[in-house]
Design brief:
The chain is mainly α and 150 residues long. Helix content is 72%, strand content 0%. The longest helix has 22 residues, at 66-87.
Length: 150
């Protein structure tokens, strides 16, 4: 049961910034990233989105059906088990033995960052992010910050 608690905490912290891993944790991070397919990374991003949609501040923007959330949870659980029990078993054992549960946290945070970066590199997502500039007064911002040709 202790490992389930560790995994649950690790999943809660999957995108936590600032977690540092040691050499075994780094090896686990590399294994997770290298052995995850594009489809795996999309499952991770979908799972994160279904969880984030529960926050009251964004609930009206991203309403996720309970069945969709359950599917995302099941797919993420299957992926997690596959990564830790098969694809990256030895690095996971070594990281847990030498660095403890924080190694899992840091390693999955790295995988989450890679997955999010791949999502943001999609041309449609990049264009959506770039549309923010149409709402900025760049000349005023440059004047205020003291940059530009002034």
């Amino acid at each position: 049961m202790r490992i389930l608690n560790i995994i649950a905490l690790m999943l809660l912290w999957v995108m936590a910034p600032g977690v540092q891993a040691g050499p075994d944790g780094d090896a686990l991070s590399n294994c997770l990233v290298q052995s995850s397919t594009e489809a795996d990374k999309l499952k991770l991003v979908k799972w994160m989105l279904t969880a984030m949609a529960l926050h009251p501040a964004v609930a009206e923007l991203a309403q996720v059906d309970a069945a969709v959330r359950a599917t995302a949870n099941q797919e993420m659980a299957d992926l997690l088990a596959n990564l830790l029990e098969l694809r990256c078993l030895e690095p996971a054992k070594a990281a847990l033995a030498s660095e403890g549960p924080l190694a899992l946290q840091a390693s999955f945070a790295m995988l989450g960052q890679v997955a999010a970066n791949e999502l943001f590199s999609n041309p449609d997502v990049a264009a959506g992010l770039g549309s923010l500039t149409s709402f900025l007064d760049s000349a005023e911002l440059e004047r205020t910050l003291g940059i530009g040709g002034n």
